[in-house]
């Protein structure tokens, strides 16, 4: 059984569509629950989730509140999850059809963690190239936008997401999984929003993400990375 964990903060534009998509593209018999972990939304996010809680007949949807911060929110969701497999999904990402069966199949063959390939909802040539590169197993091609499945046993063994990281928390967990040779890329496409690239510009965002990756490579700590991110994006 899979517990789907979706962190949110002011996601009224996306969360309803993502919940509809997840429910429509998975089998209820494989989904333990969908846990939306809200970090203090000031918009209509929580009301939209409450509507799904009230009217969803086949899949259990739960709303949990948490301190703001994606690592904290995802850890909070994991603590209350009842499934054997945790599936962390961003609120603007849409997994492929039968994603539940694909994940369970990988776990049954011994792959305890991994992600999907990604496709941005953009025709920009660079974002199309970046999407294509996610089919390879290179660590540099990984990111939270691709979603993340991991068995609950392995997640707890690692200690969950490192809450000292306000950004880059996905990659910290992914690095640990690579060091354990426990990561697989499922060759099916998840579609993710390019809204940040559209808002700030493709090259600016790509440069900032590359810089964060390099800074971490050369030893920058969580505070350094967040200060750089906040200074350049806000």
Structure description:
By secondary structure, this protein is of the alpha/beta class. The chain has 10 helices and 8 strands. It has helices at 15-24, 45-55, 70-80, 99-108, 125-133, 152-158, 169-179, 195-200, 202-217, 222-232; strands at 2-8, 31-38, 61-65, 85-88, 93-94, 113-120, 148-151, 184-192. Strands 3-2-1-4-7-6-8-5 form an 8-stranded mixed β-sheet, sandwiched between helices. The radius of gyration is 17 Å and the shape is globular. The termini are far apart. The mean pLDDT is 96.
SSE layout:
Elements (H helix, E strand, L loop, with lengths): L1 E7 L6 H10 L6 E8 L6 H11 L5 E5 L4 H11 L4 E4 L4 E2 L4 H10 L4 E8 L4 H9 L14 E4 H7 L10 H11 L4 E9 L2 H6 L1 H16 L4 H11 L2
Parallel strand pairs: 1-2, 1-4, 2-3, 6-8
Antiparallel strand pairs: 4-7, 5-8, 6-7
